[in-house]
Design goal:
With 747 residues, the protein is an all-beta fold. Helix content is 0%, strand content 47%.
Length: 747
């Protein structure tokens, strides 16, 4: 297991980039049910309490979560079931995700505000179709039962949130739904299993060991089951939702023996059933969610367990999951439907069991499981959707039943560069996107909590490859320099102090620019400009008012991909490091103090460098170099390298090879709060990675895989949510890949 060293939440932006670049009802219902009177089986909704974590976790995992960048809601797996419960005993609701196609089930810890952290547990590798939480061994914490296409499994919680396989293999059928409840009245949670065939009942010994009762309930292809006291006799009865056959109701004799009531409720392809008192008459009514475009149906209970169709037809989507709860706070049970390939929907109850569509369309993913509970601690019910082969999502309720996706979408441009800076003077970091293929660059304003709003400003329509912010005219605000490709001139945009930018109409060169950086190279107190080109690099002197003049220094004719400034030789002026690609060595240019650069004749490597950054990685007071390297023709992906400075500007390879991904961007920052500079690498076709520094300049991979197989072209670190740690923005894409925002929860 990985030692967890920090956490960020991933928020996808639709900013594409280029180049290589449930439950309760009757007595004995489990703590994990949602109180709606139903447990929706294949889309099990268990909203009680429980623990999770791997066997190395301390009681308080937040104590050592510094510097870890993760996002549960965008981990793309073949999810079939999601369930919520307080699995680590800290008073908030955590998340268990059941996956199939041989992918492991996962456990995600809530930080108390609705942000989830992967616990790094991998629970089995069976094709799980349904998962449910409940205290099966009577020790006060929530254990896990996984219903699989094959033997079902029981995972015991040790009380600290670590799940251990009990070694039980319950049946060998193709299970589609599992539900826990005290069906025999002995005070522990028994197991009901819905199968593609006869359903089965397993009685609990009280210690979490289950025995088959050898009851075979029906022979239909059951897709969902729910337990509740439908006839008012104090025990839990069973409703089975079936695929292509009528749904059935099974009456419990109080000892866990079930008899078919011979009710045939509909003939649709039901995928999910849930029970709840929708009309306020004190008994449990039934909602059936149907697939293949069939309308969802409401069945009213007469109090004795006999159901009548209310003739309400709710939608015509391919519903996979339904759940009941009071989403608008008016005291009755509303309905949420999870749909496949169509938007999920919210239906508000008028109190008498009549439902009205709110016309909210929540996403368009292939949702297979939904669950409601208060994930952000504000007293209302939020929504978690489990999606098949797509990112799972969290929707925050405003208290009136209106849900907002926590995902932010930042346009749909092909982005190649990103930078953060306080452009409007309000004390937080705003976001600038540089976009490619003739799409305008954009500015997004931060509200101080890390939520961004498009300012609707568009900056040019060139093919931008680089952007940088700095106060070029000495008026105290951040202006913008834009580096463009395809022989288009670079441009300068002046800030009015509140984040509105005006083109200065300066056109700086017409080379294929790949990188721009600002710094006072001539010691006159203003910011000059160095431009890295796919030709000669150029230097532009500032007159102090933000007007730039070409200094006509042409530093080498190699294909430069990245430039950075820093005082590498300790003489008080800014020197230049150029990162070069196409197998050319990286070069160091020393400043004579007046802004004239002299080649130091150092040749640092011969890899395909895409990004360079300077920082004191070993704590000796001088600037060291990290080179992010890409894919060299004929040699494949090149490892990223670290070069140690002797204090006089002479660099020596440390021999560290940091990964072998096709890296396009690197940045240094103290992501874990220990006082040294760590490394984040943005990679192409592979996950982005985080490398922690031991303080002496030796880096260790945290094995965090940020973003899957995206094509990341630009990364930047900054405290975007005002909590005094460094968050990460990754600009991704090659087509429709999403860019990513990772919130660091170290503080």
């Amino acid at each position: 297991m990985l030692k967890r060293l920090g956490h960020l939440i991933f928020i996808p932006f639709l900013c594409t980039l280029l180049f290589a670049c449930g439950g309760g009802g009757g007595g004995g219902a489990p703590a994990g049910d949602d109180g709606s009177g139903g447990d929706d089986g294949a889309a099990t909704v268990d909203d009680g309490s429980g623990d999770s974590g791997d066997d190395t976790n301390p009681t308080n995992p937040r104590a050592y979560l510094a510097g870890k960048f993760l996002n549960p809601m965008t981990s793309v797996a073949s999810t079939t079931s999601v369930t919520l419960g307080d699995i680590d005993g800290d008073g908030d609701l955590d998340l268990v995700v059941g996956n199939n196609e041989g992918e492991t089930n996962t456990v995600w810890l809530n930080d108390g505000t609705g942000n989830f952290i992967d616990s790094d547990q991998e629970l089995g590798s069976a094709d799980t179709q349904s998962a449910t939480l409940g205290d099966v061994d009577g020790d006060g914490d929530l254990d896990l039962v996984a219903g699989n296409d094959g033997a079902n499994t029981v995972w015991i919680n040790d009380g600290k949130g670590n799940f251990i396989d009990s070694g039980q293999t319950l049946g060998s059928a193709s299970t589609t739904a599992v539900s826990l409840g005290d069906v025999d009245g002995d005070g522990d949670l028994d197991l009901v299993v819905g199968n593609d065939g006869a359903n089965t009942i397993w009685l609990n010994s009280g210690a979490g060991n289950f025995t088959d009762t050898n009851q075979t309930l029906g022979s239909a292809d059951t897709s969902s089951i729910t337990l509740g006291d439908v006839d008012g006799d104090g025990d839990l009865d069973l409703v089975a939702g079936n695929d292509g056959e009528a749904n059935t109701v099974w009456r419990n004799d109080g000892a866990g023996n079930f008899t078919d009531t011979n009710q045939t409720l509909g003939s649709a392809d039901t995928s999910s059933v849930t029970l709840g008192d929708i009309d306020g008459d004190g008994d449990l009514d039934l909602v059936a969610g149907n697939y293949y475009g069939g309308a969802n149906i409401i069945w009213r209970n007469d109090g004795a367990g006999s159901f009548t169709d209310t003739n309400q037809t709710l939608g015509s989507a391919d519903t996979t999951s339904v759940t009941l709860d009071d989403v608008d706070g008016d005291g009755d049970l509303d309905l949420v439907t999870g749909n496949y390939g169509q938007a999920n929907t919210i239906w508000i109850n008028n109190g008498a069991g009549n439902f009205t569509d709110t016309n909210q369309t929540l996403g368009s993913a292939d949702t297979v499981s939904i669950t409601l509970n208060d994930v952000d601690g504000d007293g209302d019910l939020d929504l978690v959707t489990g999606n098949y082969g797509q990112a799972n999502t969290v929707w925050i309720n405003n208290g009136a039943g209106d849900f907002t996706d926590t995902d932010q979408t930042f346009g749909s441009a092909i982005t190649s560069a990103v930078t953060l800076g306080d452009i409007d003077g309000d004390g937080d970091l705003d976001l600038v996107w540089g976009n490619y293929f003739g799409q305008p660059n954009t500015i997004w304003r931060n509200d101080g909590a890390g939520n961004f709003t498009d300012t609707n400003q568009t900056f040019g329509s060139a093919s931008t490859r680089a952007v940088t912010l700095g106060d070029i005219d000495g008026d105290g605000d951040l202006d913008l320099v834009v580096g463009n490709y395809f022989s288009q001139p670079n441009t300068v945009w002046r800030n009015d102090g509140v984040g509105n930018f005006t083109d200065t109409n300066q056109r700086l060169g017409s080379a294929d620019t790949t990188s721009v950086t600002l710094g006072d190279i001539d010691g006159d107190g203003d910011l000059d400009l160095v431009v890295g080109n796919n030709q000669f690099n150029t230097v532009w002197r500032n007159d102090g008012a933000g007007n730039f003049t070409n200094a006509f220094q042409g530093q080498s004719s190699v294909a430069t991909s990245s430039v950075t400034l820093g005082d590498v030789d300790g003489d008080g002026d800014l020197d230049l490091v150029a990162g070069n690609d196409e197998g050319e060595a990286n070069t160091v240019w020393l400043n004579d103090g007046t802004g004239n650069f002299i080649d130091s004749d150092q040749k640092l490597g011969s890899t395909d460098t895409q990004s360079v950054t300077l920082g004191d990685v070993d704590g000796d007071g001088d600037l060291d170099l990290v080179a992010g390297n890409g894919r060299l023709s004929g040699y494949g992906n090149q490892a990223n390298t670290v070069w140690r400075n002797d204090g006089a500007g002479n660099f020596t390879d440390t021999g560290q090879t940091l990964g072998s991904a096709n890296t396009l961007s690197v940045t240094l920052g103290d992501v874990d709060g220990d006082g040294d500079l760590d490394l984040v690498a943005g990679n192409s076709d592979q996950a982005n990675t985080v490398w922690l520094n031991d303080g002496a300049g030796n880096f260790t991979d945290t094995n965090q895989m940020l973003g899957g197989t995206t094509i990341t072209t630009a990364i930047t670190l900054g405290d975007i949510d005002g909590d005094r740690d460094l968050d990460l923005v990754a600009g991704n894409g090659n087509g429709n890949q999403t860019s990513q925002l990772y919130i660091n929860l170290s503080n």
